Amino acid sequence: MTIRLMLVDDQVLLRTGFRMVLAAQPDMEVVAEAGDGVEALQVLRSTPVDVVLMDVRMPKLDGVETTRRICSEPGAPRVLILTTFDLDEYAFSGLKAGASGFMLKDVPPHELLAAIRAVHSGDAVVAPSTTRRLLDRFSSMLPSGATGQPQHKALDRLTDREREVMLLVAQGLSNGEIAARLVLSEATVKTHVGRILTKLELRDRVQVVVLAYETGLVRAGGGARP
Fold first, then answer.
1. How much is the pLDDT for 148?
2. Is the pLDDT confidence value at 127 over 80?
3. Tens-place pLDDT, residues 13-32
4. What is the three-state SS of 53-75?
5. How many CB atoms lie within 10 A of CB 38?
6. Is this prediction's pTM over 0.70?
7. 88 CB-near residues (< 8 Å, 6+ apart)
8. 138-167: burial string, b at 16+ Cβ within 10 Å, e else
9. Which pairing describes strands 51-55 and 101-104: parallel, antiparallel, or unpaired?
C-alpha cells in the first residue's frame, strides 16, 4: 500500500528537500503540498491523504490550529508535527490538538521514514522517551488541576493492570519494555493498550501520555504518583 503524504510548510526549500527524500521510497507518494494552514485545509477537501507532515509556525493559520481542525474530522489523516529546537513549545499543543507524534526537522532521513510508516500503521508514538522529555520540560503549560488527583472519570473504568500499563506508557516505555517490566508478552501488553484507548476514548498512545500528565497520574520528571 502506498502512503499518500501531504507536506505543509511555508518554506519551499524545506518542502522540496522532504519531497526528494520521500519520492525515492517505493511505498510513499507526495500527493499534495501547502504553504500555510488555510491552504492545507482547502487542499484536503479534495485530495485523499494518509499522513500530513505539519510545520508549526506558518502564516494565516499555524500548524497547531490546523492540526486541531484536521483531526476533528471523521476519517482524518494522521498528522506528524515537524518542529525545531526553538519551537519545541508548540509540540505539546500539537499533541493535544490530535497529532500522532512529532519529529525535529533535522531528523535523519531513515528516522523520518520510519516515523511516517509508524504513524500510518497506527502506532502513533514515534519516540516515547522523547515525548516524555518534552512533556516534562513544558509541564508548566499544563492546567493547574494537573497537580491534584485525577479528574478524568473514565480512569475509574480501567482495571488495576490497565492502569499499571497506562502509567508505564506515560513514562515513555515501549510495549517491549512494558512486557519485560510486568513479565507479560508483548501481545498481552498491546491488548491492554488497545483496551485503554477504547475505554478512555483516546486516539493513540500520545494522547495517553498527555492525559496522564494532565490528570496528575504522572509527575513532571516521568515518575508515577503514589
1. 44
2. no
3. 989 999 999 999 999 999 99
4. EEECCCCCCCHHHHHHHHHCCCC
5. 14
6. no
7. 134, 137, 138
8. bbeebeeebeeebeeeebeebeeebbbbbb
9. unpaired
Report whether 36 contacts 61 (CB < 8 A): yes
Q: Are strands 28-34 and 3-8 parallel, antiparallel or unpaired?
A: parallel
Start-end of H helices in 45-172: 63-71, 88-96, 109-121, 128-137, 160-170
C-alpha cell at 182: 510486568
The per-residue pLDDT for range 74-118, each reduced to its tens digit, is 888 999 988 775 545 666 677 778 888 878 788 888 888 988 988
- Dihedral pair phi/psi, residue 82, rounded to 5°: -110, 120
- The Cα 183–Cα 58 span in angstroms is 46
- Taking CB atoms within 8 Å and a gap of at least 24, the contacts of 185-194 are 189/165, 192/161, 192/162, 192/165, 193/165, 193/169
Cα(147)–Cα(170) distance, rounded to whole angstroms?
Answer: 16
Q: What is the dihedral of CA 209, 212, 218, 221, to 10 degrees?
A: 30
Confidence bin at 124 (pLDDT 50/70/90): low
Q: Are 44 and 6 in contact (CB under 8 A)?
A: yes
Can you give the length of the chain in residues? 226
User: pLDDT of 173-187, one tens digit each?
Assistant: 778 889 999 999 989
